[in-house]
Amino acid sequence: MSESKSYFNSVLRCRKLAAAAAAGYSDKVTLPPSFLASFLDTLNLDYEDMPSPLILRVRRQGGPKASTGDSQTIYCGVREFSGDEGIIAIPDWLLDEIQAQEDDAVVVETVKLEKGQFAQLQLLDDRANPENIDIRALLESHMRQRMTALFVGETISINVGGQTMPMRFTVSALEPAEAVDVVDTDLSVDIVNQQSQTHGRQAGIAELAPDTPQQIVL
To answer: Which molecular function terms from Gene Ontology are attached (predicted)?
Structure first.
C-alpha cells in the first residue's frame, strides 16, 4: 500500500458486526465512544471539525494466520460510535480481508486518503451476471451508499436483485494511490473480465463500451 498519513491510532479487539448492520457489504465499522473522544482530544478538535469522511486503516500483525512480520491492512469508514468499549465491530467480509478472527487485536488508525480518480475492477465470475444488467448503475449505487474507501487487492461483493449469489470484483488498480477516498468524487471505472482480460462488452454485461472507462459520480 502507498503511504498515507496517520493522525491517531488505537489498539482494539475485533468482533463481527451484527448481521443486520453488515447487510449489503458495507465497508463501515462500529467503534466505541471512547475512540471518538480520544481522537478529538488528541487532535484538539470539536465534533463539528471532525474530518468527513473519517477513514480508518485497520491492520493486523502476527497471529495464528499470519507469518512473522506479515501484515494485512484494510481501509474503511465509520458506521457509528456506539460500540462496546475496547471493541471494533467489523463486517465479516472485511475480517476475511485481514485474515482476522474475533478477539484478535488490531491497530486502528485514522488516515487521510487522496480522492479516487480511476479504478480498475476485475470481474471474478461472469456466471453470476444476470443478462442486461446496468453495471455502471449497480456500482454507482453500491459505492455511494456503502463504500468509503477502495484499496488495491480488495474484493467487493454487490447484491443483485433476484440473484442468490453476489457479483464480485477485485480492485486491481487505482489512481492516484493504492488506497483512495471514494466519497463525493468522480471515479472513472474500467471493468476487466477475469477470463479474457479484455475490456468492454462481455456476455451478460450491458452498458460497457469497449476500452471506455465508465465515469461514476459518488
So the answer is: polyubiquitin modification-dependent protein binding
Where among 76, 111, 146 does a domain terminate? 111
Domain region containing 122: 118-217
Each residue of 124-157: b (16+ CB within 10 Å) or e? beeebbeeebebbebbbebbeebbbbbbbebebe
79 lies in a domain? yes
Amino acid at 202: Q
Residue 190 located in a structural domain: yes
Q: Which residues contact 26 (CB under 8 A, 6 or more apart)?
A: 79, 91, 145, 146, 147
- Residue range 23-80, pLDDT digits in tens: 789 999 999 999 999 999 999 999 999 999 999 999 986 544 433 334 589 999 999 9
Residues 134 and 176 occupy one common structural domain: yes
Say which DSSP state 49 is in: G
Return the C-alpha cell found at 155. 474484493
Query: How far is the C-alpha of 27 from the C-alpha of 145, rounded, in Å?
Result: 10
**Is the bond into 53 cis (omega within 30 degrees of 0)?**
yes
**CB proximity list for 194: less than 8 A, separation 6 or greater:** 122, 123, 124, 125, 126
Say whether both 125 and 78 belong to one domain. Answer: no
